[in-house]
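Reopening this one. Same input as before:
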Amino acid sequence: MKLRPQLLWFLVFLPMVAIGSGDSLFKKSHLGNLDDDRYEKLSPRVRIEPLVGPIPAIPLDSISSFISSGHLVEQEDLNLSPRIISGKSDRLIFGSGDEFYASGQWQDGTSVYGIFRSGNVYEDPKSGELLGLEVIEIGLARVVDRKGDIVTLAITSAREDVRIGDLLMPTEERRVESIFYPRPPENQINGVIMNVLGGVSNVGRNDVVVINQGIDAGLEVGNVLSIAKQGEQGRHPKNEERDKMPEQRAGTLMVFRTFKKIAYGLVLRTSEPLKVGDLVRTPK
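Same output, byte for byte:
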């Protein structure tokens, strides 16, 4: 029999010995100590590694498809913003390349507008305080003609159908991080998930959520928060009294956009099913 060189190491240093029980033993041999008669029995074992490690830097292009184009405005901004009132061909829905008419108060020198749709009204779940009015950017339009307060615009891009009643606002110029460096916030954060974008109540990995903490609480872009499920009510077996169970850590999110009292976050990890109303905390 011709021996392959790559197997010679095993033949010299790891001889196998059979014993009566049918188990296997590997003789422990080391270079320079080949006459050692000690034996060690080997058996299957579990390798334990931590489930949660540090989160690496996240490039923008790897999560750009998840990042919302929504932002918050004041009620006065909504009241003063121009709105789409009609299309050139009496259509109710428009797409890229279509022209439409809009009316309202216009900013001098602005020729490109974002097309927005009214979103959620966010109130603090505990205090009831108005935190902000959400609008979602669905497209862009440029001015074609002006006649008094009636302006003709052409849609240059659209993420979804544009409708009569949609808002027009100057496009928002803001600094966009090219790389997010996840890190815990410096302050203690105690908030809740108020909404998950997409019209659902359950929360999963890569979902964008809205939380009731923002710049005023010390949140910054890149901050990582733990998601916890509220403890259930348990009945004591002796006195029938209800006791609240401890919170259970169930996931991690990263803040990618902040406002005064609200922030948007991307869910990075989940270990339990999540939902609106779950808690967000500074990681321990």
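So the earlier flakiness isn't reproducible anymore. For the record, The CA atoms of residues 184 and 224 lie 5 Å apart.
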